[in-house]
Amino acid sequence: MKIISLLFLFIGFSFSSIAQSTQNAEDSLNIRTVYDMALLNGQAYSWLDHLSNEIGHRLSGSTGAQRAVEYTKKELEKLGLDSVWLQPVMVPKWVRGAKEYAYVESAPGSTRDVNITALGGSVATSKEGTKAEVLEVQGIEDLARYGEGQIKGKIVFYNRPMRADIINTFEAYGGCVDQRYSGAAEAAKYGAVGVIVRSVNLRLDDFPHTGTMSYGELPVSERIPAAAISTNDAEYLSGLLKIQKDIKLYFKLNSEQFPDVESYNVIGEITGSEFPEEIIMVGGHLDSWDMGDGSHDDGAGVVQSMEVLRLLKEMGIKPKRSIRVVLFMNEENGLRGGNKYAEVAKEKNENHIFALESDSGGFTPRGFSFEADNAQYAQITSWNELFRPYLIHQFDRGGSGADIGPLRGGSTVLAGLRPDSQRYFDHHHSDNDTFEHINKRELELGAATMTSLIYLVDKYGIKE
Fold first, then answer.
1. Crossing angle (nearest 10°) for helices 2-41 and 440-460
2. How confident is the model at residue 229 (pLDDT cuts 50, 70, 90)?
């Protein structure tokens, strides 16, 4: 009897192993097809070419942003999805105005121009511009050390660089971006008349990098102008201050804040055949800063997300669950699109089981980071070997994406595509973020990688 029991156990185990092997082979073949189609007949690069070169930058509230909404909606409709719609959202409208200008004055009549750009949300200088002596600090925490006596009436120069010894460049970015975001508000409390912030960039170059900033609760009458300075010019200014403390800096900003305007998230969906109420979402943000054309940040994520649905349609896959692409508006200076999407999803009691965001550039994909519980993470990492043939197998726990963050909670798994990040901040928020810096193959590999993960999530679902 014991032998018979063991025999049945062996047979059961054998059938299970065969079924598992067959299942893995099917998944491997389908994923190979995804990569073949993306690399041989992909659409993402063509979409991005139009978005970048025909439309250009897409700051929230701008004509470019509206044209991008219209273009991507039209392209999603061409895919024959079950539904495509626009989700209204009110967004801020900040306008940079005429090009900024700045120079360093080492003596009366002895000046050198430097490259600056207004930070997003900054107030303008006076019509005559702002001119004052400069105090260099290494971060917000330095302000208290100098106090109002040394800061009042001066321009604060935040010069803490990204740490080059940190391999994860997003971690290095996080270590110094607070001076860009809150530097003006904090310096104003000590009587500063303006701030200049070292561009958040690892490379030494002449491109100033913008980005959002906030005055917090500071009254409008107390707000001071804020600009980023290129890394080369930050080095020059810092070096000059070491030998001459009384130099002055002049800068002129022409920015203006207008009332909020209506814009849209662009949404398309393939309705699930078995579990339509279970939503798998993929997306990127449609807006960009008004410098360069936003190809890496985040045109790449937009077209990769669109490509996920196109590839599934082309393969003839009828997903069990609803697959939804969301092109978010206003990630850069407000996160209004992500918040609105989550708000509506909650009102409708929608069940998002998984959300994937691409917002780290169109570089070679290395893997994903996940916000998931232990059981969910174990399930997802069991798929890791399917990605190993493509050298994409870094499945880690970590942050996902800003726009899908408001969906956090319950059993929803959030994920972020993680490309190689070493070159990302060379382009981030600058005139250097242009289509010529997009590698077609890398972009397509990212789209195929995202599609493959979405395929697996749809096929097997997510543990609750």
1. 150
2. very high
Catalytic site includes residue 277: no
| 186-203 pLDDT, tens digit each | 999 999 999 999 999 999
β-pair type (155-158, 130-137)? parallel
At residue 404, does pLDDT exceed 50? Answer: yes
**In this predicted model, which residue has the larger pLDDT, 457 or 109?**
457
List 75, 278, 331, 444, catalytic entry: 331
Separation of CA 173 from chain center: 13
The whole model's pTM is what? Answer: 0.94
Helices 63-78 + 300-314 axis angle, to 10: 10
* pLDDT over 70 percentage in the chain: 95
Structure-model confidence comparison of residues 272 and 24, the more confident one: 272
Q: Are 68 and 91 in contact (CB under 8 A)?
A: no
Residues 391, 366: Cα–Cα separation, whole Å: 7
Residue type present at position 52: S
Q: Is 64 exposed, middle or buried (0-12, 13-18, 19+ CB in 10 A)?
A: buried
Residue 49 phi, psi dihedral angles, 5° rounding: -55, -45
Contact between residue 403 and residue 359 where contact means Cβ atoms under 8 Å apart: yes
CA distance 270 to 76: 11
